[in-house]
Design a protein that fits this description.
Elements lengths: L1 E2 L10 H9 L12 H14 L5 E5 L2 H12 L4 E6 L3 H4 L4 H4 L4 E4 L8 H13 L8 E8 L10 H13 L4 E4 L3 H5 L8 H6 L3 E5 L9 E5 L8 H7 L8 H10 L4 H22 L12 E2 L2 E2 L1 H7 L3 E2 L1 E5 L5 E6 L6 H11 L3
Parallel strand pairs: 1-11, 3-4, 3-5, 5-6, 6-7
Antiparallel strand pairs: 2-8, 7-8, 9-13, 10-13, 12-13
Helix pairs in contact: 1-11, 2-11, 6-7, 12-14
């Protein structure tokens, strides 16, 4: 049985495990005050081209989204996202649990339109009853989106222009950031993305780490007392060394992007396999998540051989599925999938 269910089924990159073992008995300070965290922060500042960046290591994606959104919003404010955005669908109401409403816009292949955003904000501010309403206090997107699609530089710039016009922060969820930036379709790199938002995070959980995300405020613009807010949200690790060392490793010798490109290479092969058999795709994704549409007989042929996710069922009985590659996907799994698809 081989699995393409998601991009965090494996543990961590072997180099991370080696360094964790190698440094295991060293005594260092807790809560991110250790030398590993400091080294990782400097490497991330260099990689982003942001020498003044404020950087924080949090334990996971949902905790990061909830913490950063809560820290940036006033009690009466909500966050704008597309209807398929992760915070609107797959975070169990974590944002609402913190007291903030997710204000949704329609998505276009999973992406937010700057035009839709501007119209929403114009309508809100043009309504004389707006003081009775949830104030749109920030904008959230993910890069890549939940459908594996990525924003162009022009699209990011347009959204950021709207945010600046209305003086609200722009937050980019980078849980799969490595896979987005490593796609051949991407026309932005890490330093460029850092200049087109107010805060973003570099995902580790899905890109080679055991756990952890690195939050970056590119211009040293973190809100006051964010450390305390992180702890309030249960997103602060006492043994912060575990997070710092992982990111220090990922940002040594370009490891983060080398393993991200591997996932894209595997996804490209996977896509070609399905396409060669005339199997259509629900959406054109240039990243590590692929969404082939399978018939019931095709689903049955793969049953017990390949694990994948079913996202939806179409009226004609076919299923929208998701196959995700990762930093750890071996060529042997692609080859085995090739054999399993033979004859479909």
């Amino acid at each position: 049985m081989i699995s393409f269910t998601c991009d965090y089924t494996e543990g961590a990159h072997p180099e991370i495990l080696r360094r964790l073992t190698e440094t295991n008995m060293q005594q260092v300070s807790g809560y991110g005050e250790d030398p590993f965290c400091q080294s990782a922060k400097e490497k991330i500042r260099q990689a982003t081209g942001c020498p003044d960046a404020d950087i924080f290591f949090l334990v996971g994606g949902t905790q990061t989204n909830s913490t950063i959104i809560d820290a940036l919003l006033q009690s009466y404010e909500g966050v704008v996202a597309v209807e398929t955005g992760h915070i609107a669908v797959h975070e169990a109401g974590a944002i609402e649990f913190s007291g903030h409403k997710v204000l949704t816009l329609p998505g276009h292949d999973g992406k937010m339109s700057a035009t839709d955003l501007r119209l929403m904000l114009e309508h809100f501010h043009g309504d004389p009853t707006w003081p009775h309403m949830v104030y749109p206090g920030m904008v959230y997107i993910s890069f890549p989106t939940e459908y594996g699609t990525i924003y162009t530089k022009a699209e990011l710039s347009a959204i950021y222009d709207v945010c600046r016009d209305y003086q609200i922060p722009f937050f980019i969820d980078g849980a799969r950031l490595g896979y987005g930036l490593s796609s051949a379709a991407a026309d932005v790199d890490l330093p460029t993305l850092a200049q087109l938002c107010d805060v973003f995070y570099i995902g580790g959980t899905k890109v080679g780490a055991l756990c952890g995300e690195a939050v970056v405020f590119p211009r040293g613009n973190a809100p006051r007392h964010l450390f305390t807010v992180i702890k309030q949200h249960g997103a602060l690790m006492a043994k912060g060394r575990l997070l710092g060392l992982q990111f220090d490793t990922l940002f040594t010798d370009n490891l983060y992007f080398r393993i991200s490109r591997h996932a894209i290479d595997m996804a490209t092969q996977l896509r070609q396999l399905f396409a060669s058999r005339g199997i259509p795709f629900y959406i054109d994704s240039p990243t590590n998540q692929q969404f082939p549409i399978l018939t019931p007989s095709q689903m049955q042929a793969l049953d017990g051989k390949v694990l994948f996710e079913v996202w939806d069922t179409l009226p004609d009985g076919r299923c929208i599925t998701r196959f995700a590659t990762s930093w750890a996907t071996p060529q042997a799994h692609i080859d085995q999938l090739f054999k399993n698809l033979d004859g479909l």
